[in-house]
Protein backbone atom coordinates (compact mmCIF):
# COMPACT_ATOMS: atom_id res chain seq x y z
CA UNK A 1 0.00 0.00 0.00
CA UNK A 2 2.93 2.32 0.71
CA UNK A 3 4.32 1.51 -2.74
CA UNK A 4 1.07 2.45 -4.47
CA UNK A 5 0.92 5.92 -3.03
CA UNK A 6 4.10 7.19 -4.72
CA UNK A 7 2.87 5.83 -8.05
CA UNK A 8 -0.51 7.50 -7.71
CA UNK A 9 1.11 10.74 -6.78
CA UNK A 10 3.32 10.51 -9.85
CA UNK A 11 0.37 9.93 -12.07
CA UNK A 12 -1.52 12.86 -10.60
CA UNK A 13 1.47 15.07 -11.15
CA UNK A 14 1.78 13.98 -14.77
CA UNK A 15 -1.91 14.47 -15.26
CA UNK A 16 -1.67 17.98 -13.90
CA UNK A 17 1.21 18.70 -16.25
CA UNK A 18 -0.74 17.39 -19.22
CA UNK A 19 -3.72 19.54 -18.28
CA UNK A 20 -1.49 22.58 -18.12
CA UNK A 21 0.05 21.75 -21.51
CA UNK A 22 -3.39 21.20 -23.00
CA UNK A 23 -4.60 24.50 -21.58
CA UNK A 24 -1.50 26.22 -22.92
CA UNK A 25 -1.89 24.66 -26.37
CA UNK A 26 -5.61 25.46 -26.38
CA UNK A 27 -4.86 29.08 -25.55
CA UNK A 28 -2.31 29.19 -28.37
CA UNK A 29 -4.80 27.65 -30.82
CA UNK A 30 -7.52 30.08 -29.78
CA UNK A 31 -5.11 32.93 -30.26
CA UNK A 32 -4.06 31.57 -33.65
CA UNK A 33 -7.70 31.09 -34.75
CA UNK A 34 -8.50 34.61 -33.67
CA UNK A 35 -5.58 35.93 -35.67
CA UNK A 36 -6.66 33.81 -38.68
CA UNK A 37 -10.20 35.13 -38.46
CA UNK A 38 -8.90 38.67 -38.39
CA UNK A 39 -6.67 37.83 -41.36
CA UNK A 40 -9.57 36.32 -43.31
CA UNK A 41 -11.74 39.34 -42.55
CA UNK A 42 -8.94 41.56 -43.73
CA UNK A 43 -8.56 39.45 -46.85
CA UNK A 44 -12.28 39.76 -47.61
CA UNK A 45 -12.05 43.49 -47.10
CA UNK A 46 -9.11 43.56 -49.51
CA UNK A 47 -11.05 41.55 -52.07
CA UNK A 48 -14.04 43.86 -51.71
CA UNK A 49 -11.81 46.91 -52.20
CA UNK A 50 -10.18 45.19 -55.19
CA UNK A 51 -13.57 44.35 -56.70
CA UNK A 52 -14.71 47.92 -56.17
CA UNK A 53 -11.56 49.21 -57.85
CA UNK A 54 -11.97 46.75 -60.73
CA UNK A 55 -15.60 47.87 -61.16
CA UNK A 56 -14.53 51.48 -61.06
CA UNK A 57 -11.80 50.82 -63.61
CA UNK A 58 -14.34 48.97 -65.81
CA UNK A 59 -16.77 51.87 -65.66
CA UNK A 60 -14.00 54.28 -66.43
CA UNK A 61 -12.90 52.10 -69.35
CA UNK A 62 -16.50 51.93 -70.65
CA UNK A 63 -16.79 55.70 -70.43
CA UNK A 64 -13.48 56.07 -72.19
CA UNK A 65 -14.71 53.59 -74.85
CA UNK A 66 -17.94 55.57 -75.29
CA UNK A 67 -15.98 58.78 -75.56
CA UNK A 68 -13.64 57.16 -78.06
CA UNK A 69 -16.56 55.78 -80.05
CA UNK A 70 -18.30 59.13 -79.98
CA UNK A 71 -15.07 60.82 -80.95
CA UNK A 72 -14.62 58.33 -83.81
CA UNK A 73 -18.19 58.88 -84.93
CA UNK A 74 -17.69 62.63 -84.77
CA UNK A 75 -14.44 62.23 -86.65
CA UNK A 76 -16.16 60.18 -89.35
CA UNK A 77 -19.02 62.66 -89.50
CA UNK A 78 -16.57 65.53 -89.73
CA UNK A 79 -14.63 63.69 -92.44
CA UNK A 80 -17.83 62.99 -94.38
CA UNK A 81 -18.92 66.59 -93.96
CA UNK A 82 -15.58 67.79 -95.28
CA UNK A 83 -15.93 65.46 -98.27
CA UNK A 84 -19.50 66.65 -98.88
CA UNK A 85 -18.40 70.28 -98.72
CA UNK A 86 -15.60 69.50 -101.16
CA UNK A 87 -18.01 67.77 -103.55
CA UNK A 88 -20.51 70.62 -103.18
CA UNK A 89 -17.80 73.11 -104.10
CA UNK A 90 -17.03 71.04 -107.19
CA UNK A 91 -20.67 71.17 -108.29
CA UNK A 92 -20.82 74.84 -107.41
CA UNK A 93 -17.86 75.82 -109.58
CA UNK A 94 -19.13 76.44 -113.11
CA UNK A 95 -22.68 76.20 -114.48
CA UNK A 96 -23.07 73.16 -116.71
CA UNK A 97 -19.50 71.95 -116.14
CA UNK A 98 -19.41 68.35 -114.92
CA UNK A 99 -15.97 67.50 -116.32
CA UNK A 100 -13.93 68.52 -113.26
CA UNK A 101 -15.75 66.35 -110.74
CA UNK A 102 -14.01 63.83 -108.50
CA UNK A 103 -13.43 60.34 -109.98
CA UNK A 104 -16.16 59.05 -107.67
CA UNK A 105 -18.84 60.55 -109.88
CA UNK A 106 -17.64 58.84 -113.05
CA UNK A 107 -16.58 55.48 -111.58
CA UNK A 108 -19.07 52.81 -112.67
CA UNK A 109 -18.04 50.58 -109.78
CA UNK A 110 -19.08 53.26 -107.25
CA UNK A 111 -22.38 54.29 -108.80
CA UNK A 112 -24.36 53.52 -105.65
CA UNK A 113 -22.08 55.70 -103.51
CA UNK A 114 -22.14 58.49 -106.08
CA UNK A 115 -25.94 58.39 -106.25
CA UNK A 116 -26.25 58.55 -102.46
CA UNK A 117 -23.86 61.50 -102.18
CA UNK A 118 -25.45 63.36 -105.09
CA UNK A 119 -28.89 63.02 -103.50
CA UNK A 120 -27.60 64.31 -100.15
CA UNK A 121 -25.93 67.29 -101.84
CA UNK A 122 -28.99 68.10 -103.90
CA UNK A 123 -31.31 67.93 -100.88
CA UNK A 124 -29.01 70.21 -98.89
CA UNK A 125 -28.53 72.69 -101.73
CA UNK A 126 -32.24 72.82 -102.60
CA UNK A 127 -33.16 73.29 -98.94
CA UNK A 128 -30.64 76.09 -98.60
CA UNK A 129 -31.84 77.83 -101.76
CA UNK A 130 -35.44 77.49 -100.61
CA UNK A 131 -34.62 78.83 -97.16
CA UNK A 132 -32.79 81.86 -98.49
CA UNK A 133 -35.29 82.43 -101.25
CA UNK A 134 -37.58 84.26 -98.79
CA UNK A 135 -34.75 86.31 -97.27
CA UNK A 136 -34.00 89.77 -98.56
CA UNK A 137 -30.50 90.13 -97.10
CA UNK A 138 -27.79 90.68 -99.71
CA UNK A 139 -25.41 88.18 -98.18
CA UNK A 140 -28.08 85.52 -98.13
CA UNK A 141 -29.02 86.32 -101.70
CA UNK A 142 -25.41 85.90 -102.80
CA UNK A 143 -25.17 82.58 -100.97
CA UNK A 144 -28.39 81.48 -102.57
CA UNK A 145 -27.16 82.36 -106.04
CA UNK A 146 -24.01 80.37 -105.41
CA UNK A 147 -25.89 77.25 -104.39
CA UNK A 148 -28.31 77.64 -107.28
CA UNK A 149 -25.37 76.76 -109.54
CA UNK A 150 -24.78 73.65 -107.47
CA UNK A 151 -28.49 72.76 -107.60
CA UNK A 152 -28.54 73.04 -111.39
CA UNK A 153 -25.36 71.00 -111.81
CA UNK A 154 -26.54 68.37 -109.34
CA UNK A 155 -29.87 68.08 -111.13
CA UNK A 156 -28.08 67.63 -114.44
CA UNK A 157 -25.73 65.06 -112.94
CA UNK A 158 -28.57 63.12 -111.30
CA UNK A 159 -30.48 63.05 -114.59
CA UNK A 160 -27.39 61.82 -116.42
CA UNK A 161 -26.71 59.18 -113.75
CA UNK A 162 -30.33 58.06 -113.77
CA UNK A 163 -30.21 57.65 -117.56
CA UNK A 164 -26.99 55.63 -117.29
CA UNK A 165 -28.58 53.35 -114.74
CA UNK A 166 -31.74 52.94 -116.81
CA UNK A 167 -29.62 52.04 -119.83
CA UNK A 168 -27.71 49.48 -117.80
CA UNK A 169 -31.01 48.19 -116.44
CA UNK A 170 -32.37 47.77 -120.00
CA UNK A 171 -29.28 45.88 -121.12
CA UNK A 172 -29.49 43.57 -118.13
CA UNK A 173 -33.22 43.09 -118.75
CA UNK A 174 -32.61 41.96 -122.32
CA UNK A 175 -30.02 39.47 -121.06
CA UNK A 176 -32.22 38.37 -118.13
CA UNK A 177 -29.44 39.27 -115.67
CA UNK A 178 -31.64 39.61 -112.62
CA UNK A 179 -28.82 40.42 -110.19
CA UNK A 180 -27.68 43.40 -112.28
CA UNK A 181 -31.28 44.53 -112.71
CA UNK A 182 -31.80 44.33 -108.95
CA UNK A 183 -28.62 46.32 -108.30
CA UNK A 184 -29.69 49.07 -110.71
CA UNK A 185 -33.23 49.12 -109.31
CA UNK A 186 -31.90 49.48 -105.77
CA UNK A 187 -29.74 52.46 -106.76
CA UNK A 188 -32.53 54.01 -108.82
CA UNK A 189 -34.81 53.80 -105.78
CA UNK A 190 -32.86 56.82 -104.46
CA UNK A 191 -34.25 58.89 -107.36
CA UNK A 192 -37.89 59.79 -106.68
CA UNK A 193 -38.33 56.49 -104.84
CA UNK A 194 -37.50 54.60 -108.02
CA UNK A 195 -40.61 55.76 -109.86
CA UNK A 196 -38.79 56.26 -113.16
CA UNK A 197 -37.32 52.75 -113.05
CA UNK A 198 -40.66 51.16 -112.24
CA UNK A 199 -42.54 53.06 -114.94
CA UNK A 200 -39.75 52.47 -117.46
CA UNK A 201 -39.78 48.73 -116.82
CA UNK A 202 -43.55 48.47 -117.24
CA UNK A 203 -43.62 50.69 -120.34
CA UNK A 204 -41.01 48.53 -122.11
CA UNK A 205 -42.93 45.27 -121.70
CA UNK A 206 -43.59 43.73 -125.15
CA UNK A 207 -47.35 43.51 -124.60
CA UNK A 208 -47.52 47.31 -124.50
CA UNK A 209 -45.27 48.15 -127.46
CA UNK A 210 -45.51 45.21 -129.87
CA UNK A 211 -48.06 46.06 -132.58
CA UNK A 212 -48.25 42.42 -133.63
CA UNK A 213 -49.42 41.44 -130.15
CA UNK A 214 -52.15 44.08 -130.26
CA UNK A 215 -53.35 42.89 -133.67
CA UNK A 216 -53.31 39.29 -132.48
CA UNK A 217 -55.48 40.27 -129.51
CA UNK A 218 -58.24 41.49 -131.81
CA UNK A 219 -57.97 38.42 -134.04
CA UNK A 220 -58.23 36.07 -131.05
CA UNK A 221 -61.39 37.77 -129.81
CA UNK A 222 -63.24 38.60 -133.04
CA UNK A 223 -61.90 35.91 -135.36
CA UNK A 224 -62.74 36.28 -139.05
CA UNK A 225 -66.24 37.64 -138.40
CA UNK A 226 -65.01 40.99 -137.11
CA UNK A 227 -67.42 43.17 -135.12
CA UNK A 228 -70.35 40.98 -136.22
CA UNK A 229 -69.04 37.93 -134.34
CA UNK A 230 -71.69 36.43 -132.07
CA UNK A 231 -71.44 36.95 -128.32
CA UNK A 232 -70.63 33.30 -127.51
CA UNK A 233 -67.63 33.36 -129.87
CA UNK A 234 -66.50 36.65 -128.35
CA UNK A 235 -66.83 35.20 -124.84
CA UNK A 236 -64.66 32.24 -125.83
CA UNK A 237 -62.10 34.54 -127.47
CA UNK A 238 -61.95 36.80 -124.41
CA UNK A 239 -61.42 33.79 -122.14
CA UNK A 240 -58.44 32.69 -124.23
CA UNK A 241 -56.98 36.19 -124.45
CA UNK A 242 -57.47 37.07 -120.79
CA UNK A 243 -55.85 33.79 -119.74
CA UNK A 244 -52.81 34.68 -121.86
CA UNK A 245 -52.71 38.15 -120.26
CA UNK A 246 -52.92 36.69 -116.74
CA UNK A 247 -50.12 34.20 -117.52
CA UNK A 248 -47.94 37.03 -118.84
CA UNK A 249 -48.56 39.14 -115.72
CA UNK A 250 -47.77 36.12 -113.53
CA UNK A 251 -44.40 35.67 -115.27
CA UNK A 252 -43.65 39.37 -114.94
CA UNK A 253 -44.51 39.19 -111.23
CA UNK A 254 -41.76 36.61 -110.71
CA UNK A 255 -39.19 38.96 -112.23
CA UNK A 256 -40.54 41.99 -110.38
CA UNK A 257 -40.33 40.23 -107.01
CA UNK A 258 -36.70 39.33 -107.68
CA UNK A 259 -35.62 42.74 -108.98
CA UNK A 260 -37.40 45.68 -107.34
CA UNK A 261 -37.10 46.86 -103.72
CA UNK A 262 -40.81 47.76 -103.76
CA UNK A 263 -42.42 45.04 -105.90
CA UNK A 264 -45.99 45.88 -104.87
CA UNK A 265 -45.69 49.36 -106.36
CA UNK A 266 -44.43 47.91 -109.64
CA UNK A 267 -47.26 45.37 -109.74
CA UNK A 268 -49.74 48.18 -109.18
CA UNK A 269 -48.33 50.09 -112.17
CA UNK A 270 -48.23 46.95 -114.33
CA UNK A 271 -51.80 45.84 -113.64
CA UNK A 272 -53.11 49.38 -114.10
CA UNK A 273 -51.33 49.58 -117.47
CA UNK A 274 -52.75 46.19 -118.50
CA UNK A 275 -56.32 47.31 -117.82
CA UNK A 276 -56.02 50.86 -119.13
CA UNK A 277 -54.08 50.04 -122.29
CA UNK A 278 -54.30 46.45 -123.41
CA UNK A 279 -57.77 45.58 -122.16
CA UNK A 280 -59.24 48.96 -123.08
CA UNK A 281 -57.81 48.69 -126.62
CA UNK A 282 -59.65 45.39 -127.07
CA UNK A 283 -62.91 46.69 -125.61
CA UNK A 284 -62.80 49.76 -127.85
CA UNK A 285 -62.94 47.39 -130.83
CA UNK A 286 -65.66 45.26 -129.28
CA UNK A 287 -68.03 47.74 -127.69
CA UNK A 288 -68.98 50.01 -130.57
CA UNK A 289 -71.99 51.84 -129.16
CA UNK A 290 -74.77 52.10 -131.79
CA UNK A 291 -76.84 55.22 -132.35
CA UNK A 292 -80.31 55.27 -130.85
CA UNK A 293 -81.36 57.63 -133.63
CA UNK A 294 -80.49 55.05 -136.28
CA UNK A 295 -80.78 51.56 -134.85
CA UNK A 296 -78.77 48.72 -136.39
CA UNK A 297 -81.00 46.27 -138.28
CA UNK A 298 -82.34 43.28 -136.39
CA UNK A 299 -80.95 41.09 -139.18
CA UNK A 300 -77.46 42.22 -138.08
CA UNK A 301 -78.17 41.62 -134.41
CA UNK A 302 -79.77 44.96 -133.62
CA UNK A 303 -79.23 46.60 -130.25
CA UNK A 304 -79.37 43.17 -128.62
CA UNK A 305 -76.00 42.26 -130.15
CA UNK A 306 -74.33 45.27 -128.51
CA UNK A 307 -75.94 44.49 -125.14
CA UNK A 308 -74.92 40.83 -125.28
CA UNK A 309 -71.33 41.71 -126.17
CA UNK A 310 -71.30 44.30 -123.36
CA UNK A 311 -72.51 41.65 -120.93
CA UNK A 312 -69.95 38.97 -121.83
CA UNK A 313 -67.11 41.51 -122.02
CA UNK A 314 -67.96 42.87 -118.57
CA UNK A 315 -68.22 39.38 -117.10
CA UNK A 316 -64.89 38.22 -118.56
CA UNK A 317 -63.13 41.46 -117.59
CA UNK A 318 -64.31 41.06 -113.99
CA UNK A 319 -62.91 37.51 -113.99
CA UNK A 320 -59.59 38.85 -115.29
CA UNK A 321 -59.53 41.55 -112.61
CA UNK A 322 -60.02 38.94 -109.87
CA UNK A 323 -57.25 36.80 -111.34
CA UNK A 324 -54.87 39.79 -111.51
CA UNK A 325 -55.74 40.67 -107.92
CA UNK A 326 -54.84 37.14 -106.81
CA UNK A 327 -51.48 37.47 -108.58
CA UNK A 328 -50.85 40.81 -106.87
CA UNK A 329 -51.55 44.45 -107.67
CA UNK A 330 -50.28 46.35 -104.62
CA UNK A 331 -52.61 49.07 -103.39
CA UNK A 332 -54.37 49.43 -106.74
CA UNK A 333 -58.16 49.70 -106.53
CA UNK A 334 -58.61 47.16 -109.30
CA UNK A 335 -62.36 46.89 -108.81
CA UNK A 336 -62.81 50.64 -109.13
CA UNK A 337 -60.53 50.74 -112.18
CA UNK A 338 -62.48 47.95 -113.87
CA UNK A 339 -65.73 49.81 -113.24
CA UNK A 340 -64.29 53.02 -114.69
CA UNK A 341 -63.60 51.23 -117.99
CA UNK A 342 -67.30 50.48 -118.39
CA UNK A 343 -68.77 53.60 -116.79
CA UNK A 344 -69.79 55.27 -120.08
CA UNK A 345 -71.56 52.10 -121.24
CA UNK A 346 -73.29 51.55 -117.91
CA UNK A 347 -74.48 55.15 -117.75
CA UNK A 348 -76.59 54.59 -120.89
CA UNK A 349 -77.38 50.93 -120.29
CA UNK A 350 -81.02 51.37 -119.22
CA UNK A 351 -81.84 53.50 -122.25
CA UNK A 352 -80.26 50.96 -124.60
CA UNK A 353 -81.98 48.02 -122.89
CA UNK A 354 -85.40 49.64 -123.26
CA UNK A 355 -84.70 50.53 -126.89
CA UNK A 356 -83.62 46.94 -127.57
CA UNK A 357 -86.79 45.51 -126.04
CA UNK A 358 -88.88 47.90 -128.16
CA UNK A 359 -86.94 46.92 -131.27
CA UNK A 360 -87.43 43.21 -130.56
CA UNK A 361 -91.16 43.74 -130.01
CA UNK A 362 -91.60 45.77 -133.19
CA UNK A 363 -89.63 43.19 -135.16
CA UNK A 364 -91.73 40.35 -133.77
CA UNK A 365 -94.98 42.13 -134.54
CA UNK A 366 -93.80 42.87 -138.07
CA UNK A 367 -92.93 39.19 -138.45
CA UNK A 368 -96.39 38.14 -137.27
CA UNK A 369 -98.06 40.61 -139.63
CA UNK A 370 -95.99 39.31 -142.52
CA UNK A 371 -96.92 35.72 -141.68
CA UNK A 372 -100.59 36.65 -141.43
CA UNK A 373 -100.49 38.46 -144.76
CA UNK A 374 -98.75 35.56 -146.44
CA UNK A 375 -101.27 33.13 -145.01
CA UNK A 376 -104.13 35.36 -146.12
CA UNK A 377 -102.80 35.60 -149.66
CA UNK A 378 -102.22 31.86 -149.89
CA UNK A 379 -105.74 31.01 -148.72
CA UNK A 380 -107.44 33.79 -150.67
CA UNK A 381 -108.85 35.37 -147.51
CA UNK A 382 -110.03 38.91 -147.42
CA UNK A 383 -107.19 41.27 -146.34
CA UNK A 384 -107.34 43.73 -143.53
CA UNK A 385 -107.83 47.41 -144.14
CA UNK A 386 -104.52 48.99 -145.10
CA UNK A 387 -102.80 45.70 -144.23
CA UNK A 388 -102.22 46.87 -140.68
CA UNK A 389 -104.08 44.17 -138.77
CA UNK A 390 -103.43 40.47 -138.38
CA UNK A 391 -105.60 38.25 -140.58
CA UNK A 392 -105.63 34.86 -138.93
CA UNK A 393 -107.61 32.79 -136.44
CA UNK A 394 -108.04 34.01 -132.83
CA UNK A 395 -105.85 31.13 -131.64
CA UNK A 396 -103.02 32.43 -133.84
CA UNK A 397 -103.67 36.08 -132.99
CA UNK A 398 -102.91 35.53 -129.30
CA UNK A 399 -100.21 32.92 -128.80
CA UNK A 400 -98.67 31.73 -125.54
CA UNK A 401 -95.48 31.03 -127.49
CA UNK A 402 -95.18 34.69 -128.44
CA UNK A 403 -95.78 35.86 -124.88
CA UNK A 404 -93.21 33.33 -123.68
CA UNK A 405 -90.74 34.91 -126.07
CA UNK A 406 -91.46 38.32 -124.53
CA UNK A 407 -90.74 36.82 -121.10
CA UNK A 408 -87.50 35.30 -122.36
CA UNK A 409 -86.32 38.71 -123.60
CA UNK A 410 -87.22 40.15 -120.23
CA UNK A 411 -85.32 37.44 -118.32
CA UNK A 412 -82.23 37.98 -120.44
CA UNK A 413 -82.40 41.74 -119.86
CA UNK A 414 -82.72 41.27 -116.10
CA UNK A 415 -79.75 38.88 -116.03
CA UNK A 416 -77.67 41.55 -117.78
CA UNK A 417 -78.86 44.17 -115.32
CA UNK A 418 -77.90 42.11 -112.25
CA UNK A 419 -74.50 41.39 -113.80
CA UNK A 420 -73.66 45.00 -114.63
CA UNK A 421 -74.87 46.56 -111.38
CA UNK A 422 -74.25 45.62 -107.76
CA UNK A 423 -76.00 48.39 -105.83
CA UNK A 424 -79.38 47.02 -104.66
CA UNK A 425 -81.21 50.30 -105.28
CA UNK A 426 -79.86 50.55 -108.83
CA UNK A 427 -80.67 46.93 -109.59
CA UNK A 428 -84.18 47.31 -108.18
CA UNK A 429 -84.88 50.43 -110.25
CA UNK A 430 -83.61 48.85 -113.47
CA UNK A 431 -85.44 45.56 -112.92
CA UNK A 432 -88.65 47.47 -112.27
CA UNK A 433 -88.32 49.47 -115.49
CA UNK A 434 -87.50 46.32 -117.50
CA UNK A 435 -90.50 44.49 -116.04
CA UNK A 436 -92.65 47.49 -116.94
CA UNK A 437 -91.51 47.00 -120.55
CA UNK A 438 -92.68 43.38 -120.40
CA UNK A 439 -96.09 44.40 -119.09
CA UNK A 440 -96.40 47.04 -121.79
CA UNK A 441 -95.46 44.55 -124.52
CA UNK A 442 -97.92 41.92 -123.31
CA UNK A 443 -100.62 44.57 -123.01
CA UNK A 444 -100.03 45.86 -126.54
CA UNK A 445 -99.87 42.34 -127.95
CA UNK A 446 -103.12 41.28 -126.30
CA UNK A 447 -104.83 44.49 -127.39
CA UNK A 448 -103.78 43.99 -131.01
CA UNK A 449 -104.78 40.32 -130.87
CA UNK A 450 -108.17 41.04 -129.38
CA UNK A 451 -108.80 43.82 -131.87
CA UNK A 452 -107.88 41.45 -134.67
CA UNK A 453 -110.13 38.74 -133.29
CA UNK A 454 -113.02 41.20 -133.04
CA UNK A 455 -112.49 42.32 -136.64
CA UNK A 456 -112.36 38.69 -137.76
CA UNK A 457 -115.64 37.99 -136.03
CA UNK A 458 -117.24 41.09 -137.56
CA UNK A 459 -116.07 40.05 -141.03
CA UNK A 460 -117.32 36.52 -140.49
CA UNK A 461 -120.70 37.89 -139.40
CA UNK A 462 -120.88 40.16 -142.44
CA UNK A 463 -120.08 37.26 -144.79
CA UNK A 464 -122.73 35.12 -143.12
CA UNK A 465 -125.29 37.88 -143.55
CA UNK A 466 -124.44 38.23 -147.24
CA UNK A 467 -124.65 34.48 -147.68
CA UNK A 468 -128.05 34.34 -145.95
CA UNK A 469 -129.37 37.28 -147.95
CA UNK A 470 -128.06 35.80 -151.13
UniProtKB/TrEMBL annotation:
Single GO biological process annotation from the record: Golgi to plasma membrane transport
Keyword Transport: yes
A single GO cellular-component term on record: exocyst
Record flagged with keyword Coiled coil: yes
Domain Exocyst complex component Sec10-like alpha-helical bundle: 113-462
UniProt region (Disordered), positions on chain: 1-27
Full protein name: Exocyst complex component Sec10
The organism of origin for this protein: Aegilops tauschii subsp. strangulata (Goatgrass)
Amino acid sequence: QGARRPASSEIDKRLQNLKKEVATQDAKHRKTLGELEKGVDGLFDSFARLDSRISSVGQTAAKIGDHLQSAESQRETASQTIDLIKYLMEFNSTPGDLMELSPLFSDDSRVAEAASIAQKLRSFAEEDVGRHGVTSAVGSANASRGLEVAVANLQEYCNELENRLLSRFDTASQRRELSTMAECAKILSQFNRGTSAMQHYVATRPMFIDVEIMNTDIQVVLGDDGPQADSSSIAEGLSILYKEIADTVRKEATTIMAVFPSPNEVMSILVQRVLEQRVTAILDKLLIRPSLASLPPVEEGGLLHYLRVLSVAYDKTEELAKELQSIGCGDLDIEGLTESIYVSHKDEYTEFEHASLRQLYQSKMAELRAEAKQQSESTGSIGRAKGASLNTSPQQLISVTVVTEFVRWNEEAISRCTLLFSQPTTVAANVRSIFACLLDQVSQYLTVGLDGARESLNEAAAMRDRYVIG
